[in-house]
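Blackboard transcription, Thursday session:
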Amino acid sequence: MDTSLAIKRFDPEAENAKPYWQEFSLNLEQSATVLDALIMIREEIDGSLALRCSCRSAICGSCAMRVNGKAVLACKTRIENVSDNSRPISIEPAGIMPVIKDLVVDMDLFWNKVKEITPWLETEGVEPKEEYIASNESMVNLASVMNCIMCGACVSDCTVLEVDPAFIGPAALAKAYRFVGDPRDSKNKERLEVLDQYSGIWDCTRCMECVEVCPKDVAPMDRIMELREKAIQTGFNKTTGAKHAEAFTKIIEHSGSLDELKLPIKTFGILNMPLNMLPVGLRAAAKGKMPPVIHPSIPEVEKVKRIFDKFEEEEIENQEE
Amino acid sequence: MPEHDVLVIGGGLAGMRAGISAHKAGVDVAIISKVHPVRSHSNAAQGGINAALTIRGDDWTDHAFDTIKGSDYLADQNAVEVMCREAGGEIISLEHMGVIFNRDEEGRLGTRSFGGQRKARTFFVADITGQAILQVMYEQLLKSQVAVYEEWFVTSLIVDDGECNGIIALDIRNGQLHVIKAKAVILCGGGLGRVFEPSTNALIVTGDAMALAYQAGAPLMDMEMVQYHPTTLKGSGVLITEGARGEGAYLLNKNGDRFMEKYAPSMMELASRDVVSRSEQTEINEGMGIDGCVLLDCTHLDKKLITERLSQIHEIGIDFAGIDITKEPIPIKPGMHYIMGGIKTDIHGQTSVTGLYAAGECACVSVHGGNRLGANSLLDTIVFGKRSGESAAEHVLNKKLKTPHKKYLQQETERLKLLVNRQDSKDRVSAIRRDMGITMDEHLGVFRTTDGMNKGVSNLSKLQQRYTQVSIQDKGKIFNTDLIFALELGFMLESAETIVKSALHRKESRGAHYYLDHPNRDDTNWLKHVLITKTAEGPKLSTVPVVITDWQPEERKY
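(Written on the board underneath:)
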């Protein structure tokens, strides 16, 4: 299989060091992965090509990089699935993290975020002589998060981190869920209190990128949403994010569609409306997009209410169980 | 010059366990690793970790007997006793640290069956047990705030007057060479899988620790004992867990027969690994295979069981063989997986060099003897990682740091400079490595002969010759992996030689060492370990007797 690859190279020791693209043409086996191709280049064409790789089977998490603009594990990505005969396959280092050389990035940023979430189990009281008793379901549920191999693909492509480096980010938040969701952990409340703050769970914009690129189906964003729910249930309902979620739900229950005027007022409170929302409102008004002051309910709003009632009943039943 | 009381080389399970236990003992400890700790190969252990929990009606002596029988009576029984006796407590402490072991219906730790054992005593986290434990151990490492030299490559140990005083290492990120002083060094550098091609092992598994110890004068033991795992994918050698057979998968030949009936009528697919691999290879050699493989059949297993307990190999089948194991059998063959041999240590991890310790796959205590049981390797790393950390910490208590002579750093700097600046050769590091791997697989695989192994010796000496001439292309300082591969190849060639020389020395068949010229086990002459030591005159071979406590050697049947 004839394949051409365009690799974004960077030699930090070169004069006027800056990134450049280099093309390689290879003849590969049908089943070859992107990693096979990169290793072939390194072994047969250019020994100076730098990349991290080790297990070749999507377990060690070393080889996250961008292929055709999306973060993947090179070892898990087959050439035939990413090639398009009209142009070379593009291979770049992972995003967000600074590049050290070629496809090698500095993952300190990634690990520092993990360190922020107190990443170890905190039990309470005297340790039992034997194991802690916990249901298999609770452990299997955590196993899907423990599948995370810390490759950084989600961090590479996180659209929030791109604009807000302070965001704890998808990998570390999924890791946080692993502890909050662990029946043996005694610091649930303290953990949620921290995660509830600025740069935490409410800063995710639900763009789904992390879910899409995660090579191990950890679905970090879903974990973040579960953390939000747990935070509200635990009584952390004062943040803008929590109030926004609550206001949104109440408005829909009441009228069946979103009242865009009421939403920010309910979220922030009439006296605390952020001033930077004013220009947005004015521009909307100028373009005739101001929402009506009196928001009408949809015709069959009763049906919406019934859905809400049914849902609440089930919630109560679940809690009683 | 950085300095520590205890320096651990390797950030896998043994290394982190050693680091944490030395830290708990109150000494200053650091870990140095060529990759970030969670990238270590302990990740790849899929199936589980063995322990006999007495509260379950299991008995550690039964576990010990299974281990000793599995080892073909080559394991030192005092060491096996230590490992099996401490196993239960270690499982519980792993659980307390946060490992999310699968549970039974009462919410207690669940077990699965594994090869060569009469009881289901393998504790597991789906089929990601190694990864799940490694992540938790890293969490504990962060909690303890043990320092980590991440992406530093150790090039040599500094040994003066029979005592290890530190190491020389390359900071891969900037290419600087450093001496790190230490009162004690613990080698936890893992196995040497990449000496063989193919292998289930990750690309980083290049026997560095064994070669470092060997070059420093510490003897290696039972290096001929190389485990071929019964279920690996053709070509890449990617591992399919023994847990699959533990959960009930069959091995079939081309006629669809469960051929293990012929070789191990009572344990069938769950006989010990050496036995299963030999049976498969016999079938393949007799024309009963398909395209050099036999089949692993999971299709009769409950689909939910596969998605819950074997999800990773389900994923591996699809990604790396294009096969959905719930729908069709997957072709597999024996492939190089583990080395039972390694740096000779006592039950405290102490090697023959003062201040030098070893634990995990690079060490040989010996608990695995001629054949390791599945799920005993994770246990080995935890038990002996911890013990070596504790004994190294004790060793350094009243010891002063010694400052190594500056000639060591000068010599090493010169050696690396010459390697980087060597005149351009046509030959490549990767080509030598491939030729070495193929030679080892061909002549030191499941079946061995004098002729084959002699060929191995002569091939290796040619490869050694080529190695002295080979050049590298990358002349830079920062992240020069080209240089790292060349250094690793040096370690691998050294280790390869110890394997073939030890194998030629043991004139019997025992465990994984099946020597067609001497097809029987010979307890009269060979109930002993083979030691190989580097001397100025070349490798020196000797033997020491096996430690027998309660279990007299018997014929091994499964």
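Lecturer's comment: Chain A touches chain B through 55 residues (CB under 8 Å).
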